[in-house]
Amino acid sequence: MADVNRGNRPLSPHLQVYRPQLTSVTSILTRITGNALIVSALLIAWWFLAAATSPEYFATANGLLTSWFGDLVMTLSVLGLWYHTLAGIRHLIWDNGYMLDLEQAEKLGWIVVIGSAVLTVLTIIIV
To answer: Which CATH architecture best describes the domain 20-126?
Structure first.
């Protein structure tokens, strides 16, 4: 017999029941940074195309990318690049069957988060 109360129950209670864990949050952030890096790559490609087109068009693109907004976007792109790289290395470690228990996975998650922040600061200082 059909369940008549089906419409009264939530379809997916996972957001109301479970608290976010570091491993799930870092997984979501990996997807977000991957998509954000696509946008950054398009901005850099636009800058190169503008340089190849004309001095006036390059001045427009360069003005945007060297403004405070462009500096913010490029700095966040460096953070996203380091984060995405370290998260990819973490997944390679997991794919080889290492550090899969919860305590080690948590440590690896913190290494990714803190490491990406440290490497971003070092990149900004050096470059």
So the answer is: Up-down Bundle (1.20)
